[in-house]
Amino acid sequence: MTYIQYLMGLLSLIHTAVATASDYVVVDQLSSIPEGWSKGAAPSPSTPMKFWLSMHHNYKAEFEQKVIDISTPGHRDYGQHMKRDDVRAFMRPSDQVSKTIFSWLESEHVPSDAIEDRGDWVAFTVPLAQAQAMMKTDFYNFHHLETNTTQIRTLQYSVPEEIDPYLQMIQPTTRFGQPKTQTSLPSLMPVSINIDEISEDCLTGVTPACLRQLYGLPSTKATPDSRNVLGISGYLDQYARYSDLDEFLEVYSPDSIDADFSVVSINGGQNPQNSQESSTEASLDIQYALSMAFNANATFYTTAGRAPSVSDTGTVSTDGSTNEPYLEQLHYLVGLPDEDLPAVLSTSYGEEEQSLPEEYTEATCNLFAQLGARGVSVIFSSGDSGVGGGCVSNDGSQRTRFQPIFPASCPFVTSVGGTEGVEPEKAVDFSGGGFSERFARPSYQNTSVEAYLARLGDKWDGLYNRDGRGIPDVSAQASNYVIRDHGQWLQTAGTSAAAPVFAAVISRLNAARLKQGKPTLGFLNPWLYSLDQKGFTDIVDGGSVGCEGSNGGALVPYASWNATKGWDPVTGLGTPLYQTLEQMALSA
Which residues constitute the signal peptide according to the record (predicted)? Predict the structure, then answer.
């Protein structure tokens, strides 16, 4: 049977679906087209689409508590990371749930070879016409003006009522988010520099040497260990160039000139060395992760961020629209054998939490928890929009609201804010932070965050969620980083710089623990908050900005989170003091 015959057969089945329209329940529905997007023509019905279906299961709360337990010093299970098969068994839905979901796919004539069983997730690929019949919806091309990309999406979708109780979400459907590098603000874009004018004290430019001195990292090499891989995420066609790394290390970290990284391709991700596209983000991440971790095994996970885009005329192209990079990467990682997982994963991308369907953020956060359960320290930059960019809620109310960044807002990742300067080191004003609108404050944060809220009083009441997960957890330098990109010396900024630096700190701590026969640190936050500020420089100067009324956004005069004693939503617990952290890590 040819593909065209298969497609025509599917079209003839649209009117003979198992359930009628009246038997369907709306799973998700947007009140309007998200800001910044415009609706175009309908794409070709033959366009293949890959969907991720997430199922509900009965033990989500129990699983997340177990992750907290094995990550909390003093608990009897501390450090006893779970194995892949144990996590799969814990997360697998009941037989009834799985049977109902797979029976639906079978009744909708989804070929068995187009289905991937991932336990509590199912991936299936079908032509768009079939997807529209399955979900009683119409997909259209939607264009994003700022990034000039087109995505196939819908504003609502439905499933049979007997499926609905077991289904968490199907995406990409109503997900219009745009992951961005956290160096994407115009004021943070890289500029050419003369490195002869860079001092060695982190004042005119940040380099590995001044960071080691500032944070107390040793200049001796760590012992390479296959159990301590430092992973760096690459999305959106950002490529890490070996020649740039070599030239950077020759000048700024000559003792680690032999440092190298391997490349893992996910979903067709590439890492060409002759691309003319900007690779600032990848250069920044790789160069500082390797020079600061000093002899770590490093892997660059390049995940294809471009799915087939469709023009308004229906022409299919491989350029233009982003797909689901988090899901593609996460499902690859959670499927790896235990011995192949990275010990640390640093990611410098994010988007406004509200730009994503709630079910999507919840399901994705659970995948981060699964990595944490298996001993992976997942680290994200906290964003570069301060208290928020547009600061207008997209739920139809148009309320003025501070806007946190996801995945930094997930309670199972460690989010890293930004600082600048020395003596004193202070909060940088673009450091993303605040309080999640989706995730409740985890127990490990209660003491620290409640102390901040008590000092804050009623300031900014109504603009944020006092009961939400606080962001960030920690911080590091985020301005004036010197990098090498396409053979040029550049200077850049953003919390995307802070994340790989903190990831390198954790990689060094893991090396010390492994040397003493201890497991890697895994999910960090319960341990970090248990230290009662030990191992951190408390940042008490500066603050963030945001909600400045630009581009149609809301204006909140003097909007800011202030840096203050203890945890705060600009710099978290503070910046690392390696020697103290190593002592605490070895005693945990």
Answer: 1-19
For 306, the domain range is 180-587
Q: Are residues 446 and 472 in contact, defined by beta-carbon separation less than 8 angstroms?
A: no
Are both 285 and 147 inside the same structural domain?
Answer: no
**Are residue 166 and residue 225 in the same domain, yes or no?**
no
Other C-beta atoms within 10 Å of 356: how many?
22
pLDDT, tens digit, for every residue of 40-99? 999 999 999 999 999 987 788 899 999 999 999 999 999 999 999 999 989 888 889 999
Write down the catalytic residue from 233, 283, 431, 496.
496
Residues 314 and 455 grouped into a single domain: yes
Burial class (CB in 10 A: 0-12, 13-18, 19+), 61: exposed
**CATH number of the domain that residue 408 is part of:** 3.40.50.200
Q: Is 127 a member of any domain?
A: yes
538 annotated to a ligand binding site? yes
Please choose, from the candidates 408, 266, 407, 413, the residue with its C-alpha nearest in 3D space to the C-alpha of residue 331.
266
Catalytic residue among 244, 281, 353, 582: 281
Tokens 């006092």 correspond to: 466
Active site (annotated) includes residue 285? yes
Binding residue per annotation — 305? no
Q: Which of 237, 285, 324, 384 is catalytic?
A: 285
496 is catalytic: yes
Greater confidence (154 vs 324) lies with 154
282: confidence class by pLDDT, cuts 50, 70, 90: confident
- For the chain, the average pLDDT equals 87
Q: Does pLDDT of 307 surpass 70? A: no
Structure token pair of residue 239: 């490529």
Q: Are residues 167 and 184 in the same domain?
A: no
- The answer to whether the annotation marks 539 as part of a ligand binding site is yes
Across 298-302, 469-473, 503-507, least confident range: 298-302
Average pLDDT rounded to a whole number, residues 7-36: 64
Residue 314's pLDDT is 34
> Does 143 share its domain with 225?
no
Please indicate, yes or no, whether residues 422 and 315 belong to a single structural domain of this protein: yes
User: Considering 123, 153, 171, which residue would you say is the last residue of a domain?
Assistant: 171
Domain tally, the chain:
2
CA dihedral 125, 130, 135, 138 (to 10 degrees): 110
Concatenated DSSP letters for 272-311? -SS--S--HHHHHHHHHHHHHHTS-EEEEEEE---EEEE-
- The annotation status of 461 as a binding-site residue, yes or no, is no
Mean pLDDT of 466-495: 94
What burial class does residue 73 get, using C-beta atoms within 10 Å of its C-beta: 0-12 exposed, 13-18 middle, 19+ buried? middle
pLDDT at 296: 77
Mark whether 273 and 140 lie in a shared domain. no
